[in-house]
Amino acid sequence: MPKPGVAYPQVEPGAAALMDRRVAVCPPRATVSRALARAAKAEVVVTGPTSAIRRTELARAAAWGLGRVGVEVLARRGLAAVGPRASEIEVRRLLMRGAPMVLVREARRVLGVVDAERVELARPDTSVTARLELAGDRADEARLWVLRAAGKLGETQGMRVFAVGGFVRDLLLGRQGPDLDLVVEGDGIALARSLAEELGGSLAVHAGFGTASIEGAMGAAGPGTSPLGRVDVASSRREQYPAPGALPVVSPAPLLEDLRRRDFSVNAMAVALAPSAFGRLLDPLGGQRDLAAHRLRVLHPLSFVEDPTRIFRAARYAARLGFRLDSEGARALGLALRAGRYPALSGQRLWAELDLITVEAKAKRAFELLLQWRGLTIWNAKYRRSSRSLNRLAEAQRFGAWAHAAGIAVDRSEVALVALLMDQTAAVVSGSLHRLALTGEPQARLRAAVGAAMLARRLEREGRLSRVAEVLAGRPVTVLAGAWLGGGGRARRRIEWFLSQGRAVRPLLSGEDIVALGVPRGPQIGACLAALRRARLDGALATVAQERNFVKEWLIREEA
Question: Under a CB-based contact definition with an 8 Å cutoff, are residues 437 and 346 in contact?
Fold first, then answer.
């Protein structure tokens, strides 16, 4: 028992007390398989003065067929390094700034490593309550009401609830979207059911992933309520990928593990919603620093290999936010593109990512990044970037904007895909459509659209508008968009005329009207109506009287 008035020395354990000594050293040019063999009794393999990789990451890479890849491709670079007598406070400060590991070195010798995943950190409280309470409109008020309601319900049920992901990122950037993402340490589906009773709206449960979505929720009770976007609720979880590109196997885990399994550090932050801690920001992986640096940072070197759809997300976020992929992310991207064909990755998931990009305000920039990164080789290994592709993407946006203004329904994802494939070989087009799981009529429609330059040339030669209408009649809008993209000014004007006016032109006289004028019932009715329509399209007829005279003359010619 301490004696009163006696001063006792305070021992500072230092970095050596925190480090794990189970490390192995491996040349950076060694293969993953060789490095893994060296790490039989180690937890971390050090490949350079400031580079290292966890043994678990090496094991996953080897299991996924990457054993011959150089370990330098996977190793984390630019790690912080300290001496064994560095203070514990200094090491913890580095970890709290988002460092995944801190090497402990004495001269050139590595003594050990402090792994952020193995150290408990007491993080300083940072509150974003003021940002949450800054109501710009009724939607902001409704969102705040939902967040507080979710936190109270979680507390009642003995579960901690957090707002996570893109909601937190956008909150810190001052650019809130309509949707909410909530994570529950516990039964997320149970909380979602309770929340749906409070909010109203429709509940969709996805039991296999421990998630649920609430659509059409109202932000507060009583008249004048504001409908929210979607509210997604998930149980906090860890994910294990059985194969590259496969859907993960999920299991319950604390919030910290849930954040570590995410795609980028800027999406790995959370805000506590419990009444006693409402608004407390959790940023264990340095997301705020990356936001300030306008940087997209992956959380581990196999991020794009385990889920290649993250490549498309990276392009989407980088374009929307004006961020850049950091050097670690660039190496992770290169590794993913050389890793293989991803048979476990469904074409439907790839198509969904294409859909998400095309609705972005900066879709062209996102596609430009994908082309720059060679990301579309995920569709087909022989896909080659074309200088005309970017121009066609801009033209595809122009066509989509024109169609929207004209009230014409256009599948912008299909048009973007056509723009991206028009300069590729037939084999690449075929392979890409197959990779995107497009079969049957959709595949035939897109093949025709990609090859519609010939149709555009035909439109350039046609003289009469009635012939233009006959050539274009019955063709899907996507095919006409392909002809528009592949054609010159004359072809484009004719396609626009047909979509906005020509295809709706009909005779003023009905079938019964022309029967009353003497046209026999049967096939001749259709033939006469078709002749009337052609004459109207060519500007030869404008009134009912003119059409009556035309029918009479048509009968005389038929009888002759």
Answer: yes
